[in-house]
From TrEMBL:
Keywords: Oxidoreductase. PROSITE patterns: ADH_SHORT (PS00061). GO terms for molecular function: oxidoreductase activity. The keyword Oxidoreductase applies. InterPro entries: NAD(P)-bd_dom_sf, Sc_DH/Rdtase_CS, SDR_fam. It comes from Marinobacter persicus. This is NAD(P)-dependent dehydrogenase (Short-subunit alcohol dehydrogenase family). Belongs to the short-chain dehydrogenases/reductases (SDR) family.
């Protein structure tokens, strides 16, 4: 009997960083299941990737438990196993305006998608990850560690992901490892649905403000995901990895 290929489940994987991660793992020969609620992004992703046999695109909302249950079940039935879960789905825009005018519904929407969605996915994926002694990677943000004005809901949701990560690591070990990644500025324009063919290049100033000399790419994040879900990281759990070209270590002064 042929051995099953390893399988990864990526939320919010039809565009942006998630799409970059999906492409990376497809190139590595994994079976890749993607959950995304954006039907247009799913269609565009299917066309961009050429409908490979090892890709399964599932429409679902990670903030709705019924969707999570059915999506995880579909992914596992299709792949035959589950080795890794990447909780990448999230509302990317951090700016919600002054806290005095921030509506509770807007606050709750970010918490539901960015944080509760990761909880629900872990809840229903863990039984399958235990069987494979698999791994969870939560996509946090450098804004869990530092902030810009008017980003309270986003920062709180990403900070919650860091705490959820180390809690999962303690609760699920040694069967399942859990880690998080906090990306900085990642240029995802080429990985968005219906991405413009001739987007303006980023400026030298954009790149040079990073100690690494450039803005990040989804491949930078995917490479860290690949390490964290591999056997080479079997002694790594409960950790957060900042992938930001050194920006959170850079002292910045006013003019």
């Amino acid at each position: 009997m042929a051995q099953q290929l390893p399988a990864i489940l990526i939320t919010g994987g039809a565009q942006g960083i998630g799409k970059g991660i999906a492409h990376y793992f497809l190139e590595k020969g994994w079976r890749v299941a993607v959950i995304d609620q954006d039907a247009d992004a799913i269609d565009a992703c299917q066309q961009d990737f050429g409908n490979p046999a090892n890709l399964r695109l599932i429409r679902g909302d990670v903030a709705q438990e019924a969707d999570v249950i059915s999506s995880v079940a579909e992914a596992v039935e299709w792949a035959g196993r589950l080795d890794a879960l990447v909780n990448n789905a999230g509302i990317a825009d951090p700016d919600t305006g002054p806290i005095e005018t921030l509506e509770l519904a807007e606050w709750q929407r970010r918490i539901d998608v960015n944080l509760t969605g990761a909880f629900l996915m872990a809840k229903h994926a863990v039984p399958h990850l235990r069987q494979s002694r698999g791994s969870i990677v939560n996509m946090a943000s450098t804004r869990a560690l530092q902030s810009e004005p008017n980003s309270e809901a986003y920062a709180a949701s990403k900070g919650g992901l860091l705490a959820l990560t180390h809690s999962l690591a303690i609760s699920l070990g040694p069967d399942v490892r859990a880690n998080s990644i906090s990306p900085g500025w990642i240029d995802v324009r080429a990985w968005q649905a219906n991405a413009p063919a001739n987007a303006e290049p980023l400026s030298a100033t954009d790149h040079n403000q990073h100690p690494s000399g450039r803005v990040g790419t989804p491949e930078d994040i995917a490479a860290m995901v690949a390490y964290l879900v591999s056997s080479e990281a079997r002694f790594v759990t409960g950790q957060n990895f900042v992938i930001d070209g050194g920006m959170t270590r850079k002292m910045i002064y006013g003019d």
